[in-house]
Design a protein that fits this description.
Two copies of one chain form a homodimer. The first copy, chain A, is of the alpha+beta class. Helix content of chain A is 33%, strand content 25%. The longest helix of chain A has 17 residues. The radius of gyration of chain A is 19 Å and the shape is globular. Chains A and B meet through helix 2, strand 5, strand 6 and helix 7 of A and helix 2, strand 5, strand 6 and helix 7 of B.
Chain lengths: 298, 298
């Protein structure tokens, strides 16, 4: 059986892999050399795009952010049309569920190569944990991230705000949270400023106002947060991009972790303490989820 | 021509690759899957061992540190005998120069795999820059690393002191230094404590005393620094592992960046200013280099 047939046969674990030329590749076969700087140095950038019913969400903002991350790492500027071709190829070959997480990976390439970066797109199923979290909400732990907001402006080598492949700390923070019985993490800066989740953006709601921390303190501008804010503004909400303190997330009417894969997920428990007013929180979550989805209704 | 023949034919770019079973692999062929967590998350650990005339230096301390790094990342404990077999295979197949940098890479493996980690050893030539730096010394820039020494103890998710594959910041700091006309970087903690280089340990000499900062502030314990201190103690030097301030490295008789590949390299220029007493520094460098080499004379 061909690998395409194999992938089709195991739909739950379906993966689709394509290069920038749009050619499909066997996801079970090795792709990267042992000296690829992604593997030996975490030296590259990525994006994860949500695809629903064959339509990529926020592809433009994702490719823009990929380009900004690449620039921060001194990687050659990615070619948007090549990435779009790759995205199209993965989506066309997808035979999994209605939703797919499409990971775009762009690395500095082999250390002992000709200098050509490595680039590929990989279509993956949405994890069971993310699907459950969208419905049930999550418990989160605040953890120190270990830098001051001022570093983002003055220490470009720290790559704050670049979505790099060096995510070992983000993954370790999630494992740490899990050991403490929590699902998620909210990172805090050394001065207590609320930053972001390891793979998500923090959003709080108070009345008809949504707030999220500013990228200038060393975090990623969220593509899903951007879409949510756009939709909320159209529906008459006020949106603010401003610094948040731990009290702001504890005292908000609603606390959310948003990302492509988890969409708008609400936090029901913070640092081991259930947040008050669960039912109004659920209602708020339903309202914001609906607003977010309204961006993609035709 | 077989790939082994190709490797032999291009000795300057020679690379030897082996798996943990000791089987040789084609270094030009892809090894890692697109979903290997090394490539997508920098999720793994590594070591670089110097091999001279077929003998690996400090292999025990390197494998010990690999095991400690792996534990910090919740990776399965590496099997030392398997790694020794891999090291032996790479060394036996090496047809390059007298010296080889042997990189040991241990990753969490494919995200959509059976949970088996990816592990390999890769023999590489010593880079021209490192060879030159050993002789001529280097200029270095102090750069903020963005965390406080206290984080090492209280924030295990930051993986401070683990040698992870998430080295994008370390590489970005070196590129930043290069743009400022410097060869190397000395990282400082947020309180000004001297930490380490992106791929090296900081050592200072004053009189007959060598000092290096303590791993407890969130840095790697240096294998080459350990060997140098061992040799120095035997020769009657005093060695201290204690915190250093920027003034300590500026005012020392000698400032060194030590690592497996660069051995003992002296710093002649710090933050754009030539350090005083160049000739005594060179003499000190020659003496410490000789001490270090004495560890491996039979």
């Amino acid at each position: 059986m061909s690998w395409a047939g194999r992938a089709w046969a195991y739909c739950d674990a379906m993966r689709v892999l394509a290069g920038l030329d749009g050619a499909l590749l066997d996801p079970e076969a090795p792709l990267l050399r042992a000296d690829d700087l992604a593997a030996t140095r975490g030296d590259g950038v990525f994006e994860t795009v949500l695809v629903v019913d064959g339509k990529p969400r926020e592809l433009g903002p994702h490719l823009d952010r990929l380009a900004r991350s690449a620039a921060m790492l001194d990687l050659p500027a990615p070619d948007p049309s090549a990435w779009e071709r790759c995205v199209k190829a993965v989506i066309s070959a997808w035979r999994g569920g209605r939703e797919m997480a499409l990971k775009l990976v762009y690395t500095r390439g082999p250390e002992f190569g000709d200098g050509t970066p490595t680039a590929y797109g990989m279509g993956l199923p949405i994890g069971a944990g993310a699907l459950r979290a969208r419905v049930e909400g999550v418990s989160a732990l605040t953890l120190e991230r270990g830098f001051a907001p001022e570093h983002a402006g003055r220490s470009p080598w720290l790559l704050l705000g670049a979505k790099t492949l060096s995510y070992a700390v983000n993954m370790a923070a999630l494992r740490y949270a899990e050991r403490q019985g929590a699902d998620e993490v909210v990172f805090l800066a050394s001065d207590g400023s609320v930053l972001e989740g390891p793979t998500s953006t923090v959003v709080v709601a108070n009345g008809r106002t949504l707030r999220t921390p500013p990228p200038s303190i060393g975090i990623l501008p969220g593509t899903t947060q951007g879409a949510l804010f756009r939709a909320a503004e159209r529906a008459g909400w006020t949106t603010k991009v401003e610094r948040l303190r731990p009290d702001d997330i504890r005292g908000a009417d609603g606390l959310f972790l948003v990302s492509s894969v988890r969409k708008v997920t609400f936090v029901h428990t913070l640092d081991g303490t259930p947040l008050p007013n669960l039912e109004p929180r659920r209602a708020l979550h339903a309202e914001l989820s609906d607003l977010y989805e309204s961006e993609y209704r035709t």
